[in-house]
What does this fold into?
Amino acid sequence: MPELTCARCGRTMPRMEQPPMAGPWGVRIQDGVCLDCWKAWQEEQTIVINHYGLKPHLAADRERLYQHMAEFLRLDAPQVTP
Ligand SMILES: [Zn+2]
It folds into this structure.
């Protein structure tokens, strides 16, 4: 099973079998963090959404949420090819 050094917790962990979300962030997360840290973000995400009153179906709010996610998971934004 392929392994990675998780950007958030620093442990050597098995790589997730599937990108946990669609789009460029999914691959970035799959290559960057472990499943435990992804699950931790899932819980944190709810708090962030409620705290800032974000509406993830709006592109601008989604962008803000991704910024929080990047900070939480200690990931750089994925390279987006135009
Ligand atoms: Zn981790």
